[in-house]
Amino acid sequence: MDWVADFFIREADLYARILGDEAMVREGEELAAKLAGYLASRGVGGGRVLDVGCGVGRLSIPLAKLGFKVVGVDISPSFIEQARERAVKEGVGDRVVFVLGDARELSSVAGRYAPFDAILFIYTTIIGYYDYDTDLSILRQSRGLAKPDSILIIDTVDRHYYVKVAGRSIINELGGYLIIQRYEYDEGSARARIQWTYYARGSNGYTLRPIANAQLSIRPYTLSELTELASTAGWRLVEAYSSPWEPYRPGGSLLAIFKPS
User: Fold this and answer.
1) I need a surface site. Which of 10, 98, 134, 155 has the fewest CB within 10 A?
2) Backbone phi and psi for residue 10, each to the nearest 5 degrees, phi listed first
3) 188-209: string of b/e by CB count within 10 Å (b at 16+)?
4) What whole-number distance in Å separates Cα of residue 103 and Cα of residue 191?
5) 87 phi and psi, to 5 degrees?
6) Closest CA to 256 of 146, 154, 116, 148
């Protein structure tokens, strides 16, 4: 879909500034520590991890620092370039590989590095960007790249959340921008649309100047829908959380963990 290229390629520098914000970097480090602990408890400490939709490496790089061998894949040339530079700068250039490629062609993009002990789709990435059949294909390709006892983790936001916040706006300030996100949900297409408007603050710190607009279009899933999708692709649900490791409650974050079926 064109919005993917618009948001992650043509407007990559805007979003990269957000991903590089100190709060976002810290969030990535904190999540990496939680995921590392979980994976270690499942016998995957220090294993090979595939981070799909890795962005600028805010999760891949901390995981590499924690001893994992990481392959990060992203469709954005700008993100991959920045991730490679950061990995070298932070001393893990020998433990993480960043590969430019489209997740819809995951087998060919990441196949040379397979098999993987864990495959991650974190921060509402990839799954839901396109349509059901594409999501099914991506998860089937993931299954083909996984070890027999691999772990698949999908971190997203469930459909109940988008229905709940439809018509609302959320304001954040990250990467030096004030960002207003406007949410809409269309029952007919079962897609959520999030309109991002970026503002830069004037020199006085009070006036705001609009500098860009971007739109995301996501096909969100309920837990049962995601479980059915993954099952068709060869994965079985093990457990689900709202965040590491809070019990899952519909209407917010969904962290679903699967094993090969």
Assistant:
1) 10
2) -70, -35
3) eeebbbbebbbbeeeeeeeeee
4) 20
5) -60, -45
6) 154
User: Which residue type, as a one-letter code, is found at position 85?
Assistant: E
With cut-offs at 50, 70 and 90, classify the pLDDT of residue 202.
Answer: confident
Quote the tokens at residue 77: 């040339």
Tracing tokens 């971007």 back to the chain, one arrives at 214
**Rounded-to-5 percentages of helix, strand, coil across the chain:** 40, 35, 30
Token pair of 188 as six digits? 């007919």
Reported pTM: 0.96
Which residue in this structure is represented by tokens 């609302």? 168
Interatomic CA distance for residues 32 and 229, integer angstroms: 26
* Nearest by Cα to 258 from 157, 139, 80, 90: 139
Neighbours of 8 (CB within 10 A): 23
**Given pLDDT bands bounded at 50, 70 and 90, which one contains residue 205?**
confident
Backbone angles phi, psi at 154, to 5 degrees: -115, 120
> Is the predicted pLDDT of residue 214 greater than 70, yes or no?
yes
- DSSP-assigned beta bridge partners for residue 241: 247, 255
